Amino acid sequence: MKLGASWRKLKKLQFEVDANYRYMKVYDRLAVDQWQKQAVPCESMLELSLVSCIISPGRGLACVLGKCKNLEKIHLDMCVGVRDSDIITLAKNSSNLHSLSLRVPSDFSLPLLMGNPLRLTDESLKAVAEHCRLLESIRICFSDGEFPSFSSFTLEGILILIQMCPIRELALDHVHCFNDAGMEGLCLAQSLEALELVGCHEVTDEGLQLVAQFPGLKTLRLKKCLGITNDGLEPLVGSYKLELLAVEDCPQISERAVHGAAKTVSFRQDLSWMY
Q1: What 3-state class would DSSP assign to 273?
Q2: What is the tally of structural domains in the chain?
Q3: How far apart, in whole angstroms, are the C-alpha atoms of residue 261 and residue 239?
Q4: Does 186 reside within a domain?
Q5: Distance of alpha carbon 159 from alpha carbon 264, whole angstroms
């Protein structure tokens, strides 16, 4: 991608690679080693979205990650090769970051590049918490729900981020470390207005009942959560604390249970995903 001096003026970059091409290249070490090291000026970039890209230290798109200084929004979707060092550098340079979205491979689908296991850890989240104090929206998704990642982010790292930043929107997708203790931690999240849980099977009725204690929550979305039943929603019925409750494909929650649990409710159930 040769933009020359135009890099300095670029405010938004969206770059997506075909996933089949990505995995073919991941196992071709020679292809990675031949990439040129570059110095890319990205001082004006505000939004960055990379999908199915290969990130190799000092080469290619890694040069972009390391040079952005005014990012407000970043989305990394199945970008193989992203390391803690990349996110730490990004966090230190991006004090204006408002939105962070990460979709990362699970342990079982994670390829090996140059002999090193590639995964992000709590060190990335701690760096974001320390340097990005304006962060309002975060989404964390593990790509393969059937093979959860237990050696990447932990509950401690997620809660540190929530406690240190004014998070208004939190979405967790197949983040299996998030459980009832995590829900208890959200009781202290003064800024949290919207919570989305997808495939977070460790959250049970006990954890969901704590939603009634969340100070500012307005929107709750539950999807494919196996551990929650009608009992989890009971404290919300009649309270109208929530502006919106959306329940989708949760096998143990009935349509009857959502009535009166929010000012506006949405219910849909298609359990074909379980079979």
Answers
A1: helix
A2: 2
A3: 7
A4: no
A5: 29
Domain co-membership, 100 together with 231: no
With 0.85 as the threshold, say if the pTM is over it: yes
At residue 75 the predicted structure's pLDDT band, cuts being 50, 70 and 90, is very high
- Res 145: pLDDT: 52
**pLDDT on residue 146:** 52
Q: Is the pLDDT of residue 32 over 70?
A: no
Range of the domain at 54: 1-178
Is 183 part of a structural domain of the chain? no
Rounded CA-CA distance 87/113 in Å is 18
Residue 82 exposed, middle or buried by CB count within 10 Å (0-12, 13-18, 19+): buried
- Considering the domain architecture, whether residues 14 and 72 belong to the same structural domain is answered as yes
| Cα separation, 55 vs 53, whole angstroms | 6
Whether 150 and 257 map to the same domain: the answer is no
Question: Is residue 185 domain-resident?
Answer: no
- Average pLDDT score over residue span 84-106: 89
Q: What is the structure's pLDDT at 43?
A: 78
Dihedral sign, Cα of residue 123, residue 125, residue 128, residue 130: negative
Site of tokens 């079982």: 108
Q: By three-state DSSP, how is residue 233 classified?
A: helix
